[in-house]
Amino acid sequence: MCPGISQAAGGRGASPLEKLAFLEETQAVAAPVQHTTVASWIVGPELLVHGNPRLCAALLEPIRRGEVSFCLGYSEPGAGSDLAALATRARREGDEYVISGHKLWNTDGHRASHIILAARTDPDARPRHAGISLFLIPMDTPGISVRPGMAFYGHHFSEILLDEVRVVDWMRLGPENGGWQILGKALANERIIMASFGTDLAVLLDAMMAAARAQGLLADGATRARLATLAAEVETARLLALGAILPRPDGPAPMVAAAVGKVFAGELGEALAQAGIELLGPAALLSQGEEGALAGGSIEQMLRRAIMMVIGGGTAEIQRNIIALRGLELPK
Hints:
Layout: H1 16-28, H2 37-50, H3 53-64, E1 70-73, E2 89-93, E3 96-106, E4 114-120, E5 132-138, E6 144-150, E7 156-168, E8 172-173, H4 179-195, H5 197-214, H6 221-245, H7 254-280, H8 298-311, H9 316-327
Parallel strand pairs: 1-4
Antiparallel strand pairs: 2-3, 3-7, 4-5, 5-8, 6-7
Helix pairs in contact: 1-5, 2-3, 2-4, 4-6, 4-7, 5-6, 5-7, 5-8, 6-7, 7-8, 7-9
């Protein structure tokens, strides 16, 4: 379960391509591994590089055994895609930090044992991202409260409130005010996780093809052409994801390639679900468990879930800014 952690530390020491293959295979069979992903894929590798001995001793082996789970304490009411604008404050008092703030749109916050928290330790730093630090904090620490909610696609998300939360300094990951550089690498690992969304699209397309075949719809040339176009686009999404993970010397920068792949896959998810409804009819709108639901309700689920892929991890608008400014070198 820890392909990104070195073999010396008990992980698999997998390459980026092997990590994507691992994710694709587990997602293809809907393996129940999502709750361990942040710990084993994002926190674990950074803990090996930036964690102090006490922090590593407390968390590394439990992460490897799947005994702890993490949620991401990044986004805030005024700092979603613009993470450098975060306002959660961690002020130093001796060998402790006192943290107060408000995190939003948090996946797994209702069940995670820990949070990787981004907080501002130098409010006067310029540029803004220079004053951010990261902390690895148990969720049962006094002062942390969680308000679970339900997302549009049928899964929990949470608000997390931090009210004078006291954290000892050895729970800081990396140097004080050095969190931004670690975040950059953590987000690169998150890109691999998001790239595996193409597997979900491929599984859904296969289910749609089977339903169309069962209804005799493939006799219609226009239907075959539309499904063939979607099949080509699903494969394109996978190749764009590979391009972000395994950049070529003559290709775009990894951040730009990831932005292209994310915009394409997110909007393809919406288009794929819409096509399922238009081609297969009202039964495609039935949810999982309902009598007569097509493809196990996966078309309806994708219709609701795709909006998360358009917004989560940096909105499509932000991704287009990255493509324009850093990829195409357009003027601001």
